[in-house]
Amino acid sequence: MRIEPVFLFDLDGTLVDSVYQHVLAWKEALDAEGIDLSVWRIHRKIGMSGGLFTNQLLRETDLEINEVRVERLRHNHAEAYRRYAGSIRPLPGARELLSWLTEEGIPWAIATSGRMETAAVNLAALGVDPDKVPVVTRDQVRYAKPDPDLFTAAAERLGAPIETAMVVGDSIWDMLAATRCRALGVGLLSGGYGSDELRQSGAIRVYEDPADLLEHIDEVGGRR
């Protein structure tokens, strides 16, 4: 009996071209706290949960970590990110990929480390209604990436064993989470991580963007 795959997608840098808007929003939030951190260091943490992200950044800068500061950083990041909403666009082929999966009857869901306060901006740009499509955000799980909770919850929403899932993401945190829940990781270069980094973190295939993935969908369990 053939096991049908399901597809679980990260959002930022995977379906939506929004990674660098997040970087700039975090930079604004950190600057407001008097924390001087290079943007490349911020980029390396995108894909983690906001809480883990801020804890790591504050630890790297040897500054005091407390709940009040972490919450203030999160709030200021979300506020800054919403100001970038007008510049956020779907990545090439993202809408076409999701439409193709839907037409072929292949289940898919979205699992993002972002909270709905920022994910809503991306979903609107993508044209995805969270009332009609399974979307799991950081608000709904105990731990975010690199823990696997987001992806296991998304698979449960689809009623599918996590072992049948293709986890599609752009960061090493996506691939590590996929490996930890025994799913197969598919990496995309559209978030700024390199092919070697994604493969070393567990990706079985790496493509440029959603359009490239759709072109080669048969390689990861789709049928054209």
TrEMBL record:
GO terms for biological process: DNA repair. Keywords: Hydrolase. It holds the Pfam family Hydrolase. InterPro entries: HAD-like_hydrolase_sf, HAD-like_sf, HAD-SF_hydro_IA, HAD_sf, PGP-like_dom2. The keyword Cell membrane does not apply. GO terms for molecular function: phosphoglycolate phosphatase activity. GO terms for cellular component: cytosol. This is HAD family hydrolase. It comes from Kumtagia ephedrae. The lineage of its organism: Bacteria, Pseudomonadati, Pseudomonadota, Alphaproteobacteria, Hyphomicrobiales.
